Structure formats: C-alpha cells, structure tokens
Write the structure tokens for this entry.
Amino acid sequence: MSAHKSDAVIIGGGIIGTACGYYLSQKGLKVAIVEQGYLCSGSTGRCIGGIRQQFTSSGSIKLMMESVRHFQNMEQELGTDVHWHNGGYLFLAHSPEKKQAFLSNIAVQQAAGLKDVRWVDADECREIAPGMDAAGLLGGSYCPSDGQAYPFAVVQGYAGKIKQSGGSIHTFSKVSQILQQGGKVTGVKTDSGREFSAGVVINAAGPWSKDVGQMAGIEIPVEAERHEALITEGVEYLNIPMLVDYRADGGYFQQYKHNGQFIGCYSPVPNVPGHSVDSTFEFLHQMPKRMLKLVPGLKDLKVIRQWAGSYENTPDGNPILDRTGLEGFYTVAGMCGHGFMLGPAMGRVAADLIFSGGRDMPYPEFALKRDFSQAEAMK
Amino acid sequence: MANNTDKIVCRCEDITESEVLAAIEQGATTADEVKRLTRAGMGHCQGRTCRRLVNQMLARALGQKPETQRPITQRAPLQPLTLKALAEYKES
C-alpha cells in the first residue's frame, strides 16, 4: 500500500482538527484529517454548543472574542448555516465571594477588550432571564454577545472546505504510530497499516491527545473526564440566555434558538476520569432538578435524550497550543470543555504558527512546558 | 432539498429520503453518521421508524445486508419524560 502524501496530517476530526485543517487549507497546504471514528464522534459532537468570552486568562478572552467574530461570519464563510445566535451568557452569583470574584473577572475581561460584559443585579437578572427563580441571587456576570452554534454544522462546514481545497478526510482510521526520522516527524501510520506522510503532524486528538503524544514519546498533560448532558423537546424561544449556576447543586443550560430545544449539563463532583461515555440514571434525574430550581416554568418540558462526552483537562484549565520536541509535530489540545467555542480562533492561530514556522509563541500561557499552577478561574 | 415526491424517512425531524441519500453521498457509512449529518433519529421517538429505513438505505448504497448495519445509538429515556417527573424521582 503506497503512502498517502500531504503537507499536513491532522489527528482528530473534531472542531480543533477541522478548524486547523481549514485554515491550513486556506494557506494552500494539502491537508489530511485522520479520525479514529467519524467526524464529530469524540468530544465536539457531544458538547452543548455554548460560546462564551467570559474567561480570566487574557489569551482565552482574546481568542474567544475572535471566535465569536468567526461564528458571526461563518454562514457566509463556510456556506453552511451553523445556527449562530448571540443569546448571551449569565453567570449567577449566590454568595458574596462569587460576586466579588465575578466583579474582579469583569475588570480583567473589560481590560482585555470585552466591552459588553457587565455586572447585573438580581432584578436585572430576572429581566434578562424571564421566569428565573432569583431566590438568594445577588446578581450575575452578563455578556450579551456570548452565544451558541450547532457543532455538527460547524465541523461539516470546515470539512467541506478542506475537501474543496484538495484535502481529504479519512474516517475510521485510528493512528497507531507517529513516524519520524532524524528528529523530524514524517507522518503517521494507522492500525490498518496505512501510512500518511507529511512534514507536519498535528495532535488534535482531544481526550486522546495524551495517548497520541505517547506514541511519539512526548508527555501531553491532558486527562479525559466524563460529563453528561441532556436535551429536551423544542418549544418557542424564551429569550433565556445560557444560565451558569456554580452552586454545588447547580448546572448550566441554554435553549437553542433554531429549534427551541433546551440542552444542559453539570460538572460532576467528584469528577469521573477516563474515556467512558456511559450515561447514568443519577444524571437523568439530577439535571432536571437543577434546571427546575432555576426556571420552574419548564416543568412540563419533556426530556428526549441524555448522553455523555469527554472533557479534556489540563492541570491549569488552559489549552495547549505548541510545537513539541519532535520537529514538525504540534499539539493543539487540552481545551478543558471549551474546544468547540475556542475552535475557530484556535485553528486560525495554530495554522498561522505552523505555516509561518515563527519561533515566537502566539500565546505563551498555552505552552506545552509551562508552570501549570495558575488556574483559569472560570474553568 | 425536499420536493413533493420525496418520502419522509424521519417523521420527528422531517428528514426526507433525498437528505439521507445526500448524507451517504457525502461519505456517511454508518447510521450514527447519517444521524449527525441529517438529524434523522434525533427527534422524540429516537428513530423508532427511521432507524430501519436508514439502515436499509445505507446497506443498499454500500452493497451490504441491512443486518450488518449497526442501528443508531439509542439513549435514555426510552420515551420522553417531563422534567418534573424526572426531578421528582426519589431514591429509595
């Protein structure tokens, strides 16, 4: 079997892999996406589609502002309706400590250029999210330009453009070996024995990025963690933004504008490490409790489906976007549950770095070898 | 794009035969891929009707027997339940 030849091989057909592939294709590189399942079969296809700019690392805030600009123009750029809607995000503070933390975060976010984020009191929260039970609420951090989009459409849009540019998508192709010669990467080999040769290989394998790194003898500090989600039937759009409740019995959920379905999840405590995407009955009755606590009027809404997916966590909650000790081998992973929203800007920045070969890291806080002790507070 | 002679495959999401065929044309080889490309099977009934039709269409297009096609992943709850009914569940 002769080797498939391209300029760049990307391991992973989720948002990060296809976004990197799209921007490299735009620069004239021939791209091959090698995906172990089908497009979106990993984390991207299991996320709830929220897009926010409210972070505390200046790198993440700036990237997210750029991502929002991409999402706004995506229908035109990719020729696909990605259901972008700026429904906003409202983070709720039920304690003075949370309020103080949000006020500090808002100052950081505004200094980074996010001008429309602001503190809103409990009365205004009720106006922003009609029907919300504001008992015990001190107020919230609200950014109306945050939004939502449909992950499957975004990835398909990127994939279509990659193919149009002469690139190729190889599904059900699991990488089993990173090929190298003289300290430089030369391609990958899949478990069916097929070789894909290229001078650039990108590890965009999300929750599996650590395993992919190990194939090249490179330690990538990314750990998979199971999160669960559910979706309801669709009803009329109620103008409720993404509500984020950080309390121990809180969660986060939003309503899709395009079909009226509510979709949401909560972060499990303790966390559930590993690649399992099994669903639990505990989540199926806990999540509705948490949703109704915030918006009691949704009680007659029917849940139609639950599932699980993986977060890919780094120790500090920030992504990894860097070259590695193996020349030509890059890692763009560890999105900590924000891969879908970061994807467009992350893909653009990664593609610029890879294409230019510049030595200056665009985001030093995302370096592979960094001090991981400073945590992203809005992780 | 649906036309007036097109057959409905997924009744919940109004997905037609030509939309499923377009997904297969685009490269889908499994029912789960068709589901993600078209939303067939994502509605209230979770594919009770369309999952068999999708598998038949896939098998025909790929020259396989329908039973070799894995059905779409079915998820809990088996039938739609209200948030209230689920929230009121008490562990005994």
About this structure: The interface with chain B takes residues 38-41, 45, 152, 156, 169, 171-172, 232-233, 279, 281, 284-285, 287-289, 291-292, 298-307 of chain A (CB under 8 Å). Chain A has a mean pLDDT of 96. The radius of gyration of chain A is 20 Å.
